[in-house]
Amino acid sequence: MRGEHMAFPYDLVMFDLDGTLVETAPEICDAVNDTLHGLGLPAASLAEVERWIGHGTHELLIAALACATGTDAQAVRASKGLASTSATFDKHYQRRCGTRSRLYPGVREALAFLRTQGVKLAVITNKEARYTDTVLGVHQLRDSFDRVISGDSLPTKKPDPACVHACLHAFDVPKTRALFVGDSSIDAATARNAGVEVWLLPHGYNMGAPIQQCRPDRVIADFSVLAAEA
Ligand SMILES: O=C(O)COP(=O)(O)O
């Protein structure tokens, strides 16, 4: 039931970052191509980069190098040059962060609204913490969340449910009062593994597959739906 006197039905909302709160692929693509160009390798397309998002930025770099060199991820992982290429990419990505990323419409308003409802807010991303921090910083989002868990914050990353369990435990919220909002099959699997409800947005990065295939509890068109729930 909805109505102006109804409270928001969750005490904790956990958001994915890339493709959910922030459109990050264009500047990740720039940083990848800065790196590939420096190695004399062919550029990646934006569509390819969008498909590689989901398992963390280091995995994305490995996928890009495999594609550009015509090898596979295993060969790239075993290659001697990976550490220095990774360090080069790191510089490029830190420099590119904030140049071509943008918040999706309604994000700031939805977060502000949920705050007024006393809802605890978390980011759960597979992005490494050093990049998560830069992206949240350039978009003035660092103070918007009660907890941020990145791909290297815990011994495991999504779809392992440990990240969700950590938030439930930190805020003493039962599973039934927690919601995961994401954009991919990884987010759907994380939420299911943790036993919490999952809503997915169709505007992000789902490795090229339609979001309906993930069978979320709901597909939501945009962030206005979050405010409409109260
Ligand atoms: O960096 C990635 O590949 C994934 O990030 P996400 O978990 O925020 O979608």
Automatic annotation (TrEMBL):
Listed under catalytic activity are: 2-phosphoglycolate + H2O = glycolate + phosphate
Going by the entry's taxonomy, the superkingdom of the source organism is recorded as Bacteria
Keyword entries, A-Z: Hydrolase
A Pfam family (short name) is HAD_2
Q: What is its EC number?
A: 3.1.3.18
Q: In which pathway does it act?
A: Organic acid metabolism; glycolate biosynthesis; glycolate from 2-phosphoglycolate: step 1/1
Q: Which InterPro entries match?
A: HAD-like_hydrolase_sf (IPR050155), HAD-like_sf (IPR036412), HAD-SF_hydro_IA (IPR006439), HAD_2 (IPR041492), HAD_sf (IPR023214), PGP-like_dom2 (IPR023198)
Indicate the segments annotated as coiled coil, or none if absent. Answer: none
MF terms (GO), sorted A to Z: hydrolase activity
Note the Gene3D superfamilies from the entry.
HAD superfamily/HAD-like, Putative phosphatase, domain 2
> What is the similarity comment for this entry?
Belongs to the HAD-like hydrolase superfamily. CbbY/CbbZ/Gph/YieH family.
Protein name, as recorded: phosphoglycolate phosphatase
This protein's species is Variovorax rhizosphaerae
